Amino acid sequence: MPKIRMPDDFYDQTPDANLLATEAVMNTIRTADVLFDLIGRLLRPLNVSAAGGLVLGILRDHGPLSPSELGDRLIVTRATVTGLLDSLEQRGFVRRSANPADRRSLFVQITPAGLTVLQELRTIVHRNEKAWLSGLSDLELRAYVAQLHRIQDSLAAVSDSVD
Fold this sequence. Notes:
Elements: H1 10-13, H2 19-43, H3 50-62, H4 67-73, H5 78-90, E1 94-99, E2 102-110, H6 112-132, H7 138-162
Antiparallel strand pairs: 1-2
């Protein structure tokens, strides 16, 4: 896969920019897209999308949640949540029910079938993650994760100020 590099006249086009920052963002997006695609292809035989797998994992790890709480925790847009839940519910992997505290809202919970497919899904994905990142030592992985967390904190601060 070709690496993303900026043209030699980058600063002529955008003098106030930072070439390395632009390359970092673009390569991060490309890497995320490739990983999301690979995970999607791995999960196709299980009849679950990568985003659907995220929903199942969140519900298993955090218990029943409202659709809006799921949207807050997902790596997909909120507009995608309803479609994901429809698909997972059709397959019998989640169940929506009225919130006992407020019958106007819904809870979503994972079903026994959803737990079964999630275990299979996690085994497949985590085995591949290990292989995909095997070129990095544990020390390098810790540093990489720490850098990602710093970037996420910076993005959260910017996002909060834009709203």
